[in-house]
């Protein structure tokens, strides 16, 4: 059978960050994958060195539109690490509240997209519908649905209005009910199980070898979570569980995210309770940053966000290194995509949750006679789910 | 004895300029020893490579690896200073830590550091911009 090459990207609807994958296929089976990035290299690290520390926080907030508070949070952690700056207790709870709400809406976004890719449009519509109230909570807290502008060195920029807490609690109660329903649906549905169990397995050894982070590594049995390992903000003051599963397939990655969302709801509830009772300042006045170097990290929805900042005592960083979680998770495709059918490649590529965008897809098969023919990867994936559904339902 | 003290006692002849902070440990290593140190951190005590940071200073080009010991939340950061700025070269740790493949390619791309022993030393970010500035983050840019 002839070997074909399927180029996916560089501007592929699945991948906001415009990676370019070359899938080598033998018949239906993927036998090789080559990854290519750099299509959206925007020079944030260099630009940051020309900005003041406070301006850098706003700059890094624009790196990602979905987890837009993870980068600023890691950035302020790095700056605070240089001087061991203390944060007021109320600000610590507000930071944790914002971070966890972001995890809820980011995971819901992924759950919806994953449902769409495998032909589960009900799950997609549910998840995105129930994501909307989370954005409304952000609007109540910060005034913005995205890019909240809350982080500052030494605390947060805006306080949470105590009179809004009952309303936030009500919205959270609704989200919790709906999340329980999605968790139950994911657990009970035979089609979802047969479609995702054993697909795109990333073994524990490969996850260690590729230094994977976040839900991608936790679904492969690595119990790494920055919130537990190196707790900043209020993570050592709230109770939650780290979700770790063993199989490393797409189903486990789905379950990790669903269960993590339930844990996040628990954390948000604890933060709101504390914010009713704890009063005090929300920002320590930091006048200057000493010469030195600092490392800041935060467990973003996709895994560990890493920032390294070196200061020479002026008002701007001399070096600002940024590493997003997708940067270490995307190379794991070399381990998880080999040997699987093309119909499963789409959901496997999506399973590490690389940042998405919503433009139209364009995929071409280049065959041996160099005559390009168009195929729809989404259709192949959804057809497989339909086939399984028919088999399970017996018609 | 904690991880850091244990590490120092085992490698005290190979590390210098130690900076110890809360859960952060920075130290200098020589180019010849970087693989041994990476092997110890990654394979012996189970650290994960977060990433690496390159920076050009007046003394040379620094490459700072960030190894995270997730069980304790401790960072080990070995730093290699390459003094030959014209032909910067150092040993790659990718044969030991697969996760270093992309970041070493990125440093090769943006700083021009030649990583000896890297299995696939190609440009990562500016490959499709042949007319652009080469090694854009160096002090003196070559056009």
List the helices and strands and how they pair.
The complex is a heterodimer of chains A (395) and B (143).
Chain A: E1 3-8, E2 20-26, E3 29-36, H1 44-48, H2 53-61, H3 70-83, H4 89-117, H5 121-142, E4 151-152, E5 155-156, H6 165-188, H7 190-196, H8 204-209, H9 214-218, H10 226-229, H11 250-277, E6 292-300, E7 303-311, E8 317-323, H12 326-329, H13 333-336, H14 342-351, E9 364-366, E10 372-374, H15 377-393
Helix pairs in contact in A: 2-3, 4-5, 4-11, 5-6, 6-11, 7-15, 14-15
Chain B: H1 3-11, E1 15-21, E2 24-29, H2 34-44, E3 48-56, E4 61-69, E5 74-82, E6 89-91, H3 101-111, E7 114-116
Parallel strand pairs in B: 2-5, 6-7
Antiparallel strand pairs in B: 1-2, 3-4, 4-5
Word description of this protein:
- The complex is a heterodimer of chains A (395) and B (143).
- Residues 356-372 of chain A have low confidence and may be disordered.
- With 395 residues, chain A is an alpha+beta fold.
- Chain A is globular.
- In chain A, a hairpin with a 5-residue loop joins strand 7 (303-311) and strand 8 (317-323).
- Chain A is built from 15 helices and 10 strands.
- Chain A folds into 2 domains: 3-39 and 338-393, no CATH class; 86-285, Cytochrome-c3 Hydrogenase, chain B (Orthogonal Bundle), CATH 1.10.645.
- Chain B has a domain at 3-89: NADH:ubiquinone oxidoreductase Nqo5 subunit (Beta Polymerase, domain 2), CATH 3.30.460.80.
- Chain B has helices at residues 3-11, 34-44, 101-111; strands spanning 15-21, 24-29, 48-56, 61-69, 74-82, 89-91, 114-116.
- In chain B, 42% of the residues are buried.
- The model of chain B has no long low-confidence stretch (mean pLDDT 89).
- Classes of the chains: A alpha+beta (395), B alpha/beta (143).
- At the A-B interface, strand 6, strand 7 and strand 8 of A face strand 3, strand 4 and helix 3 of B.
